[in-house]
Amino acid sequence: MNMKAIQFHKNSSEDGSATDIELPLPKASGHDILVKIEAIAMNPVDYKVRPAEGDPPKTLGFDAAGTVVEVGDKVTLFQKGDQVYHAGDVTRPGTNAEFQLVDERIVAKRPTSLDSSTSAALPLTSLTAWESLFDRLGINPDTPEENSGKSLLIIGGAGGVGSIAIQLAKLAGLTVVATASRNESADWCRNLGANHIINHHEAMPPQLKNLGLETVDYIANFNDVDRVWEAMADMIAPQGSLVLITGHQNQLDLGGTLKLKSARICWEFMFTRSMYQTDDMIEQHHILTRVAKLVDDGKLIATANDRLSPINAGNILEGHRRLESGSTIGKLVLSGWK
Ligand SMILES: NC(=O)c1ccc[n+]([C@@H]2O[C@H](COP(=O)([O-])OP(=O)(O)OC[C@H]3O[C@@H](n4cnc5c(N)ncnc54)[C@H](OP(=O)(O)O)[C@@H]3O)[C@@H](O)[C@H]2O)c1
User: Fold this and answer.
1) Which of 31, 234, 293, 338 has the highest local Cβ count within 10 Å?
2) Which run of H or of E encompasses 189?
3) Nearest Cα to 64, choosing from 22, 111, 117?
């Protein structure tokens, strides 16, 4: 039996760079489950890992919501019919296909209060935001009273990752300063709970001072590292911590003010656990399960903000173009097959 899939042939979002094809239906074994994909969401990683010149064609796509249709012999967490969501594994074929194999340890049952397309917007950004704040910066999500009085600057507040991070940080009791450069993105951040907004296209340290904050205890940079490296060194508190999730073009100066302040710098890469099959890979199952409960309890607002249908090459290319603009707010989701 065959399935529909979309494959990229080159590193471009121009029409014709991806095509609708048919591929053989994969079979689940070991810890894999076979998921019938109902909806997907777009992330910048989709356009960052398109095939380079000379590479074989690629089935991309990371965020998805769907239904389990087959389980491997070692699967214990799921059974056929479970409605799930996941952010996948960058080393394996992706969610731009009607069916996808995924390791059960990075999947969870999706929120019962949301439809599949709204759920699909959550996994990748929730995992990145959760791991950034709680695994890398070491903030305890369960002690909001102890965390109150601590401050976090989120650079790129209205993006996919920032939109979830603002909410998780508020639930954890922190004071949140989010960056946004337009009225609509600033309003979006405020609606998600940000206490203050500053503009990342203007000098940030004086804006922070105007809020009465000399420094912040934590910085989560979810966008541009190079341009704001020195500003971050100015804004971080002595013994504060920074997390970075994007690449950088310049050599970063790890000394200077950052050294004098004994600042801690850590990286977050959402695919580390699946890529290296770490012993704690199942943590992503636990995080997504907790996120689904927060949504169902009304504590976390879903961030789907733009929709396309059906899932086909034309709409996926349009999605890549919208993401490449760097100005999307919240998440873009695609749903349905025709
Ligand atoms: N390491 C990981 O595991 C991981 C995981 C997820 C994402 N990422 C990376 O993190 C980045 C953000 O991902 P995302 O999904 O949140 O992106 P996104 O949704 O595409 O971000 C769009 C937002 O970026 C903001 N923005 C544009 N220029 C900015 C700048 N110079 N400084 C700060 N914000 C700016 C815009 O806000 P305004 O309109 O207000 O300017 C816009 O709302 C991407 O590079 C992505 O590849 C890494």
Assistant:
1) 31
2) helix 183-191
3) 117
Could you read off the pLDDT of 255-283 as tens digits, one per residue?
999 999 999 999 999 999 999 999 999 99
Average pLDDT of the chain is: 97
Q: Can you give the length of the chain in residues?
A: 338
151-155, strands of its sheet edge to edge:
196-198, 175-179, 151-155, 216-221, 236-244, 264-267
Nearest residue by C-alpha to atom 36 in ligand 1: 327
Q: DSSP 3-state assignment of 264?
A: strand
Tokens of 124: 């990748």
Instruction: Give the separation between CA 99 and CA 198, rounded to whole angstroms.
Output: 42
CB distance 244 to ligand 1 below 6 Å: no
Tokens of 27: 């079979």
The structure tokens listed for 50 are 């398109």
* 110 Cβ contact list (under 8 Å, min separation 6): 65, 83, 84, 85, 116, 119, 122, 292
- Ligand 1 site, residue 330, Cβ cutoff 6 A: no
- Domains of the chain with bracketed CATH: 2-122+276-335 (3.90.180.10), 126-267 (3.40.50.720)
Sign of the Cα torsion 63, 168, 178, 147 reads negative
Q: Cα of 330 to ligand 1 centre, how many Å?
A: 10
pLDDT at 338: 85
Which is the closest atom of ligand 1 to the Cα of 162?
16
Q: What is the pLDDT of residue 12?
A: 97
Residues 195, 175 contacting (CB under 8 angstroms) = yes
